[in-house]
Specification:
Helices cover 25% and strands 26% of the residues. The chain is built from 8 helices and 19 strands. The chain has a 5-stranded antiparallel sheet. The protein has a 4-stranded mixed sheet with strand order 1-2-5-3, covered by helices on one side. The protein binds flavin-adenine dinucleotide (FAD). It is found in: Cytoplasm.
């Protein structure tokens, strides 16, 4: 295990924020992960785990040990038409989607082109184009710091919901995901309920998982800025979920506000619409700004600090709250 000092974290976060890690280590085995945990415990260092760095904001330098989870490996168990795939946490998510399609294992096609690692996928129950990780997840394996051992968390115990899970709550920072197990199918069952996906499918063809994946990848490439050129973390704000009564009042005034029904009568609102209507789409505040095509994507145009990014986010939250009475919640984890 090679623990480095004062490591530049800019290449490790897709927002391109300048920050340094006091200590930094890449772990590619369970033994190295345990060693890194012991090292940080013995020196009373704070631990920060990162995968692809596509869903975090570094407010400043990290006083502690940054542990880059880089465990690799994919295994498969066949049971009839089902394929149970166990994927190590450090595998790249998008590469996994492409690999599964090439093997004829279906179920991940709508989740193509999402940056980051497989291990982080359960943390916010990644979702796109009508599919969430919850649709295919069987269980999550990880190192429980409190128990000092590996353990398995079943799907029901993961408490997955919209951009949320037990790993953001009770198990935050104490459960390090080492692998996830997914249930995929050799017979495709396409999920085409998402209107923008249906509309973008090529005309006069019966869609296959490969066509769905190509279509989603194309829409995403057209819609979302490439973080390698315009550093970002995807959606910066969650779509707010409000009560039926709140929604009734808001929609009476703004009937054009895009919204979706949720369980228990609650209503999810389009954060992008709220930000756009508050006048922020395409606007810049110094080195950071809101993308001109995507009101929900903050772009770090000139290697600004995490503080500058968060100042822009606060200004947007204040405007949206003043205009609509809605509190926007930041999606990425802030360190
Ligand atoms: C252009 C772009 C588009 C995106 N589109 C989508 C989308 O469509 N849908 C969606 O849901 N998300 C989307 N995202 C967000 C992001 O890609 C996902 O949340 C992804 O799962 C983050 O993976 P990561 O490895 O980069 O996580 P990181 O940013 O490295 O980490 C995120 C959080 O997870 C924790 N973590 C990471 N790995 C582990 C581990 N092994 N064990 C325990 N904790 C861990 C970290 O400590 C941190 O708190 C997008 C991001 C970008 C930049």
């Amino acid at each position: 295990m090679d623990i480095k000092r004062h490591v530049d974290l800019q290449p490790y976060n897709t927002l391109g924020v300048r920050a340094k890690a006091d200590y930094f280590v890449e772990v590619s085995s369970l033994e190295e992960l345990c060693e890194a945990i012991q090292f940080s415990s013995s020196r009373r260092l704070r631990r920060v785990f990162i995968g692809g760095g596509s869903n975090l904001v570094l407010r400043g330098d990290v006083q502690g040990l940054v542990i880059h989870v880089a465990l690799l490996g994919i295994s498969c168990e066949a049971l009839g038409d089902e394929r149970f795939i166990t994927v190590a946490a450090g595998e790249n998510w998008d590469a996994l989607v492409k690999y599964s399609l090439a093997q004829g294992w279906y179920g991940l096609e709508n989740l193509i082109s999402i940056p980051g690692s497989a291990g982080a996928a359960p943390i916010q129950n990644i979702g796109a184009y009508g599919v969430e990780l919850a649709n295919v997840l069987v269980s999550v394996t990880g190192w429980d710091v409190a128990l000092n051992s590996l353990r398995n968390v079943s799907l029901s115990d993961c408490h997955l919901s919209y951009r949320d899970s037990v790993f953001k709550g009770a198990l935050r920072d104490t459960f390090i995901i080492t692998a996830i197990t997914l249930r995929l199918q050799t017979s495709p069952a396409l999920e085409l309920s998402y209107p923008a996906l249906r509309e973008a499918l090529p005309a006069n063809c019966s869609p296959t998982p490969e066509i769905v994946a190509e279509t989603v990848a194309r829409i995403r490439a057209e819609k979302l800025p490439d973080f390698r050129l315009e550093p970002n973390v995807g959606s910066f704000f969650k779509n707010p979920i409000i009560t039926a009564n709140q929604a009734k009042a808001l929609l009476a005034e703004y009937s054009e506000l895009p919204h979706w029904s949720m369980p228990e009568g609650r209503v999810k609102l389009a954060a992008a619409w709220l930000v756009d209507q508050a006048g922020w789409k395409g606007r810049r505040l110094g080195a950071v700004g809101i993308h001109p095509r995507q009101a929900i994507v903050l772009v770090n145009y000139e290697a600004a600090s995490g503080g500058e990014v968060l100042a822009l986010a606060s200004a947007i939250q204040a405007d949206v709250s003043a205009r609509f009475g809605i509190g926007l919640e930041i999606e990425p984890r802030i360190y």
